[in-house]
Every structure is written in structure tokens, then in C-alpha cells.
Design a protein that fits this description.
Helix content is about 5%, strand content about 60%. It is mostly beta strands and about 650 residues long. It has one domain: Maltoporin, Chain A.
Amino acid sequence: MLPAVIQAQVEEVVVHGTEAGGFVSRADEHDSPREVTDAASLVEPLPGVHVRRYGADDAFTTLSIRGSSSTEVAVVFAGVRLTGGADPSLDLASLPLWPGAVVRVHRTFTPAALGPGSLGGTLVIEPPKPMSPARTETWAAVGSFGEARLRVGSVSDMGTGRVAVAVSASRADDDFTYLDPLASSQGHDVYATRGNAGHAAADGLVSWALPVRWSSESWGALTVTTLAQARHQELPGTVLGPTPFARLDSDRELASAELTGGAGRGMLSVRAWGRREGLRLEDALGSAAVGPTRADQTIAATGGSVGWRGRVTSDATIEAHVDGSGEHFEPGLTAGAPIPPEATRTSAGGGLDAEWHATDHLVLAASGRVDGFSNASAGATTGDLLPTGHLGIEVPLDFVTLAAHGGATARPPSFVELYGDRGAFIGDSALLPESAWTIDAGARGSHALGKLAIALELDGFATWADDLITFVPQGAYGRAKATNIGVARLAGVEADARVRLGPLELRGAYTGLVTENDSACEPVVGPCVHPALPGRPANDLVADLIGYAGPASVRFGVDAITGMVADVSGGIGVPARVLASAGARVDVVRGVRLAIDVRNLFDQRTGTYQGALGPVHEPIGDYYEYPLPGRSLLVSVRFER
């Protein structure tokens, strides 16, 4: 077992600081009132977050933070960036999940130590920690549409060190029914079965920590994390352009090694990592899909970083990092569509995070990075230098803490945005890097009065973006084209609340958003009207009311999405949806819990929006022409030892 001093050293390098550096949301699989089916359902209830599903659970799913596009959100796992030039928009359904999984969402402003930031913020997935208490936990579930899931996690001693092991697997048919807009007519709804929408996936993770003699008087630790994933995904297409024969097989392998130890008045960390992802797409000749009948692709990336965190004075802390990476996209064999070009990106950067506790009621923070990148593709080389940074302040008072931040973010276009991919994404080699200025401010606090306990956070934010990159739908076959929107504005509010009164608890998160594409002007009577940005809901609410009675609990939840458009002109509306859910849990004996969850309790599958020629009846969905399923049931059991 690791000596206590080494455990403390390893934990010390994972210090999250105060919200003087930026607003952060945290989700814990153990703390969720709902049964967590995938990584998307874990982050979905967080403020500022919008999860967009292209079908049922485990279909392609993207993440938006404060109105960002999915390509503007960075994803980091075990210190390794899973997003980059070759794969900017990560499929949340492909992320690993295990008992007790923890994620953090940095809304807009990200610590420089995490690497290059992004306009939308960063999702950080914390791998199982070998330093956690020894335990074994298993979660298994079966449900509607052929759904079956298994997650196992274990932490134990390993001679002189500690090891954490986690495995998970899932499968589903997802053959739900939806309103068929092609077969339906006014007053006559026709439902069809969503075919070719199933999946099967498995992954395994091993993380171990070993003591290392750092010097003659001190010890350090070496932490190694490895991950392997395999996934088979059926691709059903849109309701107007189904693809009944398309299949996508993917795999991901990752390894990270971090050496930590004392250095002066702080901790030194050295990390090296590597990542490989393979994709194999197959479709039948003659399919309605615009994409290829076959495409093999490989992404390989490697990098490293050196960082130091410590106190420079009794009330001031800094963390300095330098890092670099290289990634290569190999298109492989492609048939039936244009072959995307082979591309390579190299990048290097450095940054500094600083925090100063000026007084008991004033904390100041600053963060800055400079990142350079170079793209090489088709005999051409391009590059740029992108500085980013922000300032923050936190004022802790008796019952409330005030915080505010302001700064600049930037992101270069990815390979998919520049060159397109698989016929589904249309690139633009002339795209410019996107950048933005953002300010936010808010307050959080908690208070208990007898049986009443309240924890509340309320924030507001505003973003001014230049050359914003977004994918705009093209035609009826699910294609999308990368486009620079010259100037865009986003503003909104976020609220996160927990209220406990005796046996009742209310949890809720709300995001209200207003967006404008200031580079476009829609012809109307009177002044010019700037359309809203596509794919951003004006209102996003997730709330749960929970009642506790001894070892049992019951839950009623609401998920509401309204005010979203699908095109740059704002003329195509995505039908609003308000879905209810319910669940119950009971601790049968010590260490054994049974649960049942019902999603879309009232089986809502259609919605109406006002079209140019009158009301339009459509299947509900997070994205135009990708329907969501109706009522579904999940039964699960959890064992802990």
C-alpha cells in the first residue's frame, strides 16, 4: 500500500481551487437521483450544459456548454485530451463509465494546467483513483428496447502499490417507434419503427500507483492509467433519409503515465501519454445515404507535459505548465465518397494559473496561455499563435459567495471543419480560427434552518464571438457544412438548486439562453432581425423531486427543452419537448440496492412548431429529424462490498 505521505502528494496535484478561477459543475454517479445509463445522462443535469442526443441512449450524443457548439468543448480524461484537430466533436456515448464515476465541467474558463482551452469550456473525466478506499462495486441493468448494461469497479492493494480496475459493457436494439412525417398527413399520424439503431460496446480500465524514491529524503509516486474500448454502432440516419445498412465500428486505446513528487515549496508533475482511435464505416451500395459505402480511419496522438504547483507566499499559489502534442489523421480506404485528406497537427504551449487570497473576503485569480499550432495536409502547411487568458475574483461572505470572471478564448478549426469527413460533414479549407470575449458573474450559498436546507447557485454570462464556427444542416440526408459566422452574441443565466425539507428534496438546474447571429439579417417588416444561432435551446430545465422513507426513495423528474431552431435563418424550429420521468430505489440489505427508472413517463413522441405554411407536426428530438424514443423502463441492481 502507498505510504500516507505519498497518497497526500498524489492527491495534492489534483487541487481544484476556488471559483475565483471559473465556474465549475461537478457530477458524481453515486450522487445522481436518476439511474445513470451513460456519460451523457451523468452530465445532463448540470447547469449551463445541454446534451444533444441523435436518438436513444448510446446514439451519437454531443455536449454544448453555454450555447457553444460541440466542437468548442474540450474533453480531458486522465490528463489526456480526447478532442483535438482530428476529432473535435467527441461522441459522449463512447466515453467510459464505471461505478462512482466523477466528471467536472468548467463553464467557459478552464485552468491553463488542463491544456489549450476552448470557447465552450472543458469536460474533465476523472478516472478511478488507486488511492481511494479498497472496495468492489457492481451495477447491472436491463430495460426497454433490448437494453442491457454492466459496470464493475474495484480498488485494492497491490504489493507496495495500489490498483483500480473498471470494466463496463452495454448493448441495445433501440427499435422504438416514431412519427413518420413522410407517411403521415393532416389529421392522420403514421408511426414507423426506428431500425438499424442498436449498439454493443465494452471497455476496460486499469490504473495503478507505485511509490518512487524521489530523492534521498522524499518519495514520489508513479501513476499509470490505461484504457481500451471497442464499440459497434448502427447508424439509422434521419427520418427523411434513413440508412438501414450503415454500421460504424470503433476502438480507442489510451495510456498515460504521470510522475509526481515534491519540489521546493510545491509539487512537480511530469506526464507522457498516447492515444489511438480507429473507425470503420460500412454501408450497402445503393443506400439513401450520401456518405461512403466504406471508410477506414485512424487517429494517432501523443504528447506530454511538465508542471509545478506550489505556494510562492503563504497566501498565493501558482501552477505553471508547458505541454506539447502531435496528432495524425489517416483516412485509410474510402469507397463511394471523396477521400478526406491525410492531415497532421503539431502544437505546443504553456500557461500559468495564479490565485491570491488577499484577505479573508477577497480571492483574486489569473490564468493565461499561449498556444501555437501547425497543420500539414495535401502539401500545404498553415499555423497560428493563439493567446488566451482570463481574470477572476471571489468574495466569500457569511452566507453567500460572489464571483466574477472575464477573459478571451480561442480555438483553431479542426480537420473535419477544414476538410470534411465521410460525406456527412462538408469542410471549408478557408475557415478562420474562432475567438470570443466572455464575462460572467454570480453567487452561490447554502443555509440550514431547522429541517430546511438550501444550496443555490445563480450565474449570468455574456459572450461576444468572432468567426464562430458552426455546422449548418444541408439537405435532407443529415449532411452539415462547417461555416464561419462572422459575429455572434450569446447571453444567458444558469441556476442550480438543492432544497431539502424533512423527507423531501428538490434538485434542479436551469439554463436560459439568448443568441444572435449578427452577421445575418432576416427580412421583416421594420428593423432588421438577427436570427438565433441553430441548435441552442432558449430554455433547458432538468429537475427532480425526491421523497425518502427509511431505506426507500421515490422520484419524479421533468426535462424541458424549448426555443431551438435548426437553421441559420431561424425559420426551422425544433419542436419543444417537456418530458416527465419517475423512479424508485430501495436498499434491500446492506450493500444491495434495487432501482427502477421510467423515462418519458407519459410517452410523448410528437411536437408541433409553427412553419412558414402553418403548424408542422414532427417527432420530438434534440436535433431536427432525429427522433427520441417514447416511454422506456430500466431495472437495475447495485452491489457494494
